[in-house]
Amino acid sequence: MLDEFLHEPRVAYFSMEIALRNEIPTYAGGLGVLAGDTVRAAADLTLPLVAVSLISREGYFRQELDAQGRQVEQPASWNPAAFARPLDAKIAVSIDSQPVWIGAWLYVLEGHMGGRQPVLLLDTDLAENSPENRAITHFLYGGDERYRLKQEIVLGIGGVRMLQALGFRDIRQYHMNEGHSALLGLELLRRYSYPPEGLRPGESPYDLPRVREQCNFTTHTPVEAGHDRFTYDLVRQVLNHPIDEATLKHLAGEDNLNMTRLALNLSEYVNGVAERHAEVSQRMFPSYHIHAITNGVHPFTWTAESFRKLYDRYLPGWCHEPERLVRADCSLPDDGIWNAHSDAKRALIEHVQQRTGVALDAQQPVIGFARRMTAYKRPDLLFTDIERLKAIAHRYPFQIVLAGKAHPHDEGGKRLIEQLHRHARTLADTLPIAYLPEYDLDTARLLTAGADIWLNTPLRPLEASGTSGMKAAFNGVPSLSILDGWWIEGCIEGVTGWAIGDHADTSDGDARALYDKLERTVLPLFHDGGDAGWIALMRGAISKNASYFNSHRMMRRYATEAYIR
Ligand SMILES: *Cc1c(COP(=O)(O)O)cnc(C)c1O
């Protein structure tokens, strides 16, 4: 099976979620989209990389919203056989002291430039397993802690064994995309252990330096809840001592098995996903060296057809070398940019009409806001002062399109969606607001290209990177955002977009700053600035942001700084 690929993979990229295509719901949000873009960039750059994830047959969930904005979670089952090929190999891991058999599907990611990248999707739904164990790889981020630990055993330990069984003999680097896959390091420790006969008292049987040399860890969140922890009681029951407990506690924490600690201790190369995020992570984990590789998005995937054509004509080669977009400020004609954007905006307006019945006006600016609906993303910040918002909309008309799912257990996030629906009803006469259900890759593509302004209002410093604003930049859409995550690096005031506030750290202060910026700068420029003023900004987003915040730069950096060291 290896023969069909150009290179023998040397890097194994592990991720709990991965967004391969719209029809395959094996992702929940930004982390999975980044994993997908990583493999898409690897395909374009012909990097010898194999990705490992779970099959998640029942997906994350499909979001339905009733008129009140109550989220109803529908199963998102998919049929692996329609997109992937089952492989012969089978391996077992021990869970609850029983063997759990794991099979794998091969999904071949076909890059638009002809690259082909193997993605292994692990599956426990095999006749050999009990009904309970068959379901381990069914629900992405579903179930309780025990279920999650079982999934992480399958991903980490199962993944390494599966690579071995399939004959991937030349894997030199393992890359953990977030801590979910950190148990892979335990399997490597087991592989590289010395026979007990040769050990002197007190000597460790494990060749830790050798494992660390092969492991890379990318941490993705400064939110504590984002770091998986398991009690050692649970670990003893479920995982049954893959290595001795004293060593495990030394590596993963005395009180709990902390997947982030484990990944940090097993990896020689560790990075955060933006410069600020690396600084924040460095403060959280002072005894490790945390590098920064700022995220990027895949150029071809996130550029609307109309802009692809424009770039193909004026900046050929942009897709493989997105750096070429740096010339967008001199090389793209005004009407070319404006027409490309109008096409994308029309497509969004049609979709909004179809899905929600809300009629948007193509002449008025559209503010787009779409992300996971959860407290720290503050989707309600824009609605802090309804009277002020009405007054602004009265003077400078605009419209809002929202989208986003809340995790099924995040009651606060679900309430936020309902609240946004209430605001939409209250404001209907002054300010058209649409909420698109089922935020997925296709919706994200339509929204990030069709909006005029991309809004992001997270609570500092909790936005590790954020990537949707980068997608917007590829489509000439400027961001209006809190200075956090990637935007600290991407914002040039009035050139690529605008900052909301500076160092104010109260929601009141941020809301005021947001209203001020909208009322005094952003909306007046759109309405009264003349086309040239606005188009200059679109050009700034393309030439200064898209040229840099792309997955090709990101993967070249991982290749030269993490994989080859
Ligand atoms: C890009 C993307 C995200 C992540 O966007 P953020 O800006 O990081 O919030 C989440 N979900 C989908 C479907 C996406 O396409």
Cα-atom Rg, whole angstroms? 24 Å
Largest sheet: 10 strands, mixed
| CATH domain topology of the largest domain | Rossmann fold
N-to-C span: 29 Å
Shape: globular
CATH class category of the largest domain:
Alpha Beta
Per DSSP E runs of 2 or more residues, the count of β-strands stands at 20
Low-pLDDT stretches: none
Q: State mean pLDDT (0 to 100 scale).
A: 95
- How many discrete structural domains? 2
Compounds present? pyridoxal-5'-phosphate
Summed up, the helix count is: 21
Percent strand equals: 15-25%
CATH superfamily of the largest domain: Glycogen Phosphorylase B
CATH architecture of the largest domain: 3-Layer(aba) Sandwich
What share of the residues lie within helices?
Answer: 40-55%
**Helix-and-strand structural type:** alpha/beta
